[in-house]
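Progress note, sequence design subtask.
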C-alpha cells in the first residue's frame, strides 16, 4: 500500500514538472520544421551578402511591417507585449543554444511557413523571401 502511494506521489510530481516546463520555451534542441521537410529546409542559404545596410533593413522590418517585436520583443529576448499570453513562449534570439541547433535555412522556413500549434504564424505573402533573409541578418545581431 505504501509503495502505491509513493508511486502516485512520483506521478503527480512528474506531471507538475511537465506542466511547468510547458509554460516556457519549448525544448530548443527539437527541430521545429516538420520531419519530412527538414532536410530541404536545412539546405536553404541566404542569397544576400551581409552588410550593415541589410541589418538595418531587417531591423526596420522586424519592428515594422513584420510585427515580430510584438512577440519577440524590441530587445529580441522573447518578451514583447503579446508574449505573456503565449505557450510556448516566443523564441529568445539571445539564446546561444538556439543558434547552435538551427541552420539559417530552418530559421527561414519557420518565418515563411510558421510553426503549427504555436503563436508563430507564417509570413509567406506578407514578407518577400529577400525581406525574410534581411530580418534573419538582424536576428543574428542579437547573438
Ligand atoms: C504572435 C506572436 C509572434 C509573432 C508576431 C512572431 N513570432 Fe516568431 N515565434 C513565436 C512563438 C510563440 C515561437 C516559438 C515556437 C516554438 O517554440 O516552437 C516563435 C518562434 C520563432 C523562431 C524560432 C524557430 C525555431 O526554429 O525554433 C523564429 C526564427 C521566429 N519566431 C522569427 C519570427 C520573426 C522574424 C517574426 C516577424 C516576421 C516573428 N517570429 C513573429 C511567436 C511569434
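Output:
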Amino acid at each position: 500500500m505504501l509503495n502505491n502511494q509513493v508511486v502516485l506521489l512520483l506521478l503527480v510530481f512528474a506531471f507538475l514538472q511537465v506542466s511547468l516546463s510547458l509554460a516556457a520555451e519549448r525544448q530548443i534542441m527539437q527541430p521545429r520544421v516538420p520531419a519530412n521537410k527538414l532536410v530541404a529546409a536545412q539546405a536553404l542559404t541566404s542569397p544576400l551578402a551581409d552588410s550593415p545596410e541589410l541589418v538595418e533593413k531587417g531591423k526596420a522590418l522586424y519592428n515594422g511591417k513584420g510585427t515580430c517585436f510584438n512577440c519577440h520583443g524590441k530587445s529580441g529576448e522573447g518578451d514583447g507585449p503579446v508574449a505573456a499570453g503565449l505557450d510556448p513562449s516566443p523564441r529568445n534570439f539571445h539564446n546561444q543554444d538556439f543558434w547552435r541547433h538551427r541552420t539559417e535555412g530552418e530559421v527561414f522556413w519557420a518565418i515563411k511557413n510558421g510553426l503549427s500549434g504555436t503563436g508563430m504564424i507564417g509570413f509567406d505573402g506578407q514578407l518577400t523571401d529577400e525581406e525574410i533573409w534581411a530580418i534573419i541578418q538582424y536576428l543574428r545581431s542579437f547573438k
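The domain at 25-140 is CATH 1.10.760.10 (Cytochrome Bc1 Complex; Chain D, domain 2). Work on this subtask will continue into the next period as scheduled.
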